[in-house]
Amino acid sequence: MNDIKERLVNGLIKENPTFVLMLGMCPTLAVTTSAMNGLGMGLTTMVVLALSNAFISLLRNIIPDKVRIPAFIVIIASFVTIVELLLEGFIPSLYDALGIYIPLIVVNCIILGRAESYASKNPVIPSLFDGIGMGLGFSFALTCIGAVRELIGAGTLFGLHIMPESYIPCTIFIMAPGAFFVLAMLTAIQNKIKLIGEKKGKDMSKIQSGCGNDCLNCSDSGCTKRFYDEKAQEPKTRRIKGEEEKEHA
Asked: CB–CB of 133/4 below 8 Å?
């Protein structure tokens, strides 16, 4: 249970894909013209991420190491196709709004990154919840960005008029530059929270900066920065130790 909770908190806060790791920027900036679009894109990605993580973890001992990346992409693409067809059939309005960004989920670095760094090395249940946690973090970030852009740029929130009739929408916020403005603003707020926490003596090292540890000697198998093969780590480590022994000799 603690491992499941840690996976969810990790995706939502410690390694939030958007605000912390700065991954998946293409859909983040492109589809967040409204809160509903952001939420729809985030939940769609979460479903693909959770299912692909679970399936890749289930097959982690079967997939040959040399073809693991192509195998991961095939699995991810299969789930993306299923989700795309379901959206087209049951939620056509969201399907039309997200457009080309639905099939582009296949090449979203968040999904492939979690498959490579966590799902391929861990059991099914933790991998499933790792995908859910990362997906929820991505959904939260996209919904926040979309909500701010929609509120300032159109005076509405989830399609409902919030601002008074006298409010003049700042339409630049629902255009491309607005996405950068809002992302920068929300990231700045997060940095401020981090500084306040550090002044209070709290450990904020894994918020915003991700991880400051040496990846080669890192013991966190779920860290998204570990995009290397652990099997290749051992010879490299032995080689470095051998060179150090020669220098001392």
From this structure: no
